[in-house]
Amino acid sequence: MVIYGVYIVSKSGGLIFNHDHNVPKIEVEKSFNFPLNIKLNYENKKVVVAFGQKDGIHECRMAGTANDYIGTLSTTRSGRTCAKWLDNYNFEQIQRSNVSLKTKSSSRFLRLIRTKSRSKRHLMAKQNLLTSSQLLMKPPSSNLSQSGFKVDKHINFVDQTYLNDSLYPELSVQDANNYCRNPSRNIAGTWCYTTDPLVPQDLCDIRDCEKSEECTFFVKGHGIGRRLYVLPEYRTEGLRFSLKTWEPDHPDSITFVFTADDGLKSRYILKIGALDNEKVLLYYESEERGNLDIILVKKKTLPHLLYLGKWSNFVIRIPRGHVLLYYEGTSNPLFEWKHPESSKAFLPIYYYYNSEEGHAIGVAFDCALRCHIENTQTNRYTRILPLSIWSKEEIVRPNKLMLMIRAKGVVLIPLFLLPATSGFYVLTLGERGQWIYFLKNTYPRVRIYHKGNALKPIFNTNSWTNVTIKWSENTIEVFCNKTNVFYYVHRQPLIFYFFSLAVDPKGWATWSANCLPSDIDGPPLDGGWSEWGPWMCSASCNGGIGTRRRYCNSPEPNVRGEPCTGPSSMTGRCNTILCGDITDDTITLIKKVIAYNHTAFTVKEYASISLPSDSNIVNTIRIESPNSEIQWSHNGIFIQNNHHRLEIKDYEIIINRAVLNDSGVYTLTAHRIDGTYMIIKVITLAVVPIKESITIRETLPMHVTCHCAILGYVYSNLKVYWMINGNVWKDYGVTLPVATNVDYVPTINKSHHGIWKCIVEQTDLKFKWTTNVIHVKGTKYI
User: Fold this and answer.
1) Where is the Kringle domain (predicted)?
2) Domain at 584-687: CATH architecture
3) Distance from CA of residue 641 to its chain's centroid?
4) CA-closest candidate to residue 739, choices 764, 718, 714, 762
5) How far is CA 327 from each of CA 25, 274, 306, 332, 770, rounded to the nearest angstrom?
6) Residue 634: what pLDDT?
7) DSSP SS3 for 249
8) How do residues 713-746 score in pLDDT, each as one tens digit?
9) CATH of region 210-369, choose from 3.40.50.300, 2.60.120.200, 3.50.20.20, 2.30.30.180
10) In terms of Cα–Cα distance, which of 92, 51, 44 is closest to 69?
11) Is 169 exposed, middle or buried (0-12, 13-18, 19+ CB in 10 A)?
12) If 642 and its partner were Cys, which of 159, 414, 532, 646 is the partner (CB 3.0–4.6 Å)?
């Protein structure tokens, strides 16, 4: 992990300690790893230490707002070049202004450096979280022309506040050069002014050192009006999440509120990191006795629950009448409360979370788990999400957002380049039922750029609408259930990284982003376990200790159903195979492929045919166990190459001219280093004769061979029967194929004339094989 930071040094150069609160302390100079630059200023007792890139290490940030980043990245996420924070020509003037900045607060106005424009631009100061009513309270500003303006040189609008040396980890705005920094302490992280006049500011791609942006949410302020569904697994496995105080300059705590079903007012209020990050508090509001007072039912002192520079990982379990808080990976709860009569307690159906003091908290979830379903009834943007939310891959520049929505009223979707700043774009959906507006908010001014009519209501209240928003360069489109309902070409590039969702007063929306929501309508559907997954083992061979998981998705319970019972993980001995043998995971894969796939061929006599191997499995075995021997067999006898008619090439059998004796079961077998044999592929081949294959005088006896015995060594519960001319001659029922492989016909008569087929079925798997075909012709006795 790369660590950047600003430190204080004594005049003697002795002890060095952390100046910022977001990176670990370093006590002596010899503790430094890979320093690129150490700048000492003994008069001010400051030292700047830059821990730079080591080979193979990716730049990242520990502080949520990236106060600790002191790298040299100067390109934005959209590929634009960063402009200098301070232009050289005006350096002397800014030096004088920096002196005054240290003695008194600077006025909050925007300074235009090196401008050459044909019109004036009115930029508003930074705004905090805005409501949709504020957003729409004034008509568009008349001083912004529809056609815009042209510039001869690039323009850098520099907030004079950002010219304060103390806002940069170098302690110098000049030394910050044109590197990505965050003097505004925006929750999105590092950014810069760009050399592109059409994109004044842009975000830089400096990611969190631990958690993926695609799975991280920002909550800032209260969460009322943003309730999420409690999924059944939260009651057994628990709600898994990670927390980080996102703004090092403004520590905060988080509160989770779990509520009862609609119409009920019971709730739990769980405060994590309350009272200076030292307490866990649980409040309970109950309707049991008609008393809705909020009562503190338990408190516990647990210092340092939330950190400034690292994540804290938690699990909350909420079965009926029980609240348990764990550190992730531990079996004993760090906080627990149980209702004295659990059966009388309410069942949590919804939950929401918020920061106590209104500062940002980072909340990260596991992207591999089910995505969240939110019911929104607020016009405040208190929950900020990345546009790439729930993506399994890192997305540098998002270009679409897929929403599943059911709603009533108008839905507002702000699209942010930098959250909590003035001048962001908004899509409003459902104006007068079917209208879509694209506008820009520069509070208190709002400008509508385009509106479109979807021709029919966009939302239903009881079914999902797929709303997909796509943008590229300066074009934005909206699709409803894959139908294009909105198209607009803007005059400037459209670059977005974050979004939120709100509704107008008296409206509501239930939605999920970039995923398909779980069932919230149907009758209760209980969950079922999947098969166990592969082992995560301490040793690859000769035995180790490991864990494996299974998932409650066969089927997945809906929000009203019961979760799967029993453990989702197992610990035990694993990879007990000999070193150099086929691994347990590959053996499991082979068994799964054989159990769920079958291959059966029927071909006319003298035709050509190829019998394929499973190349993925063969290649895996050759890599894992190069000393294992892989060989084909036919009806239990190993095959030798016959270059005239039959050839084995790259573990594929090529038959140039099929004959009747080629019928039967072909198996690809691995001779393992422990001396055992393992079948890795099964194929049946039935060669249909083009003329009579057996001519026999009536009244004589005859033997018929099914060639099915080998199937019985691979599959169980097999049904075997013979058919003559499409009619069943003899049905053996469920039996051992080896016992019915050869049958005896004591007396041939007219009913035995025709095409015989031996058929094997596995009814549970719905597999069916034809293992032999013969054509019998009987002659009369003379």
Assistant:
1) 62-209
2) Sandwich (2.60)
3) 49
4) 718
5) 24, 17, 12, 8, 58
6) 95
7) coil
8) 999 999 999 999 999 999 999 999 999 999 999 9
9) 2.60.120.200
10) 51
11) buried
12) 646
Cα separation, 260 vs 230, in Å, equals 10
Residue boundaries of the structural domains of the chain: 33-88+158-207, 210-369, 371-518, 534-574, 584-687, 694-779
**Contact present, 195 and 114 (Cβ < 8 Å):** no
SS3 per residue for 142-177: CCCCCCCCCECCCCEEEEHHHHCHHHCCCCCCCCCC
d(CA 454, CA 475): 18
List the beta bridge partners of residue 283.
Answer: 269, 296
- Distance between CA atoms of 548 and 540, rounded to whole angstroms? 14
Could you tell me which residues come within 8 angstroms of residue 35 by beta carbon, excluding any fewer than 6 positions away? Answer: 49, 50, 51, 52
Three-point CA angle 487, 491, 493, nearest 5°: 85
Cis omega (within 30 of 0) for bond into 333: no
CATH homologous superfamily of 694-779 equals Immunoglobulins (2.60.40.10)
| φ, ψ (nearest 5 deg) of residue 744 | -120, 125
Fold of 371-518: Jelly Rolls (2.60.120)
Location of structure tokens 């009814």: 763
Three-state secondary structure call for residue 238:
coil
Tokens of 262: 């609609």
Name the DSSP class of 397.
S
Q: What is the 3-state secondary structure (H, E, C) of 706-746?
A: CCCHHHHHCCCCEEEEEEECCEEEEEEEEECHHHHCEEEEC
Length of the chain: 782
Task: Write down the pLDDT at residue 114.
Answer: 33
Here the tokens at position 526 are: 């209980």
Please provide residue 7's backbone torsions phi and psi, each rounded to the nearest 5 degrees: -130, 160
pTM score over 0.90? no
Token pair 């670059």: residue: 495
CATH 2.40.20.10 fits 33-88+158-207, yes or no: yes
Q: Which residue has the higher pLDDT, 476 or 1?
A: 476
Cβ-based neighbours of 659, under 8 Å, separated by 6 or more: 605, 606, 645, 687
Q: Would you state the torsion angle of the CA atoms of residues 415, 420, 423, 426, taken in this order, to the nearest 10 degrees? A: 30
Average pLDDT score over the chain: 84
pLDDT digits (tens, 9 = 90+) for 128-161: 333 443 433 333 333 333 333 333 344 556 788 8
Q: How far is CA 253 from the centre of its chain?
A: 26
Write out the E strands in 443-552: 445-453, 465-472, 475-480, 483-489, 498-499, 502-503, 508-513, 536-537, 544-549
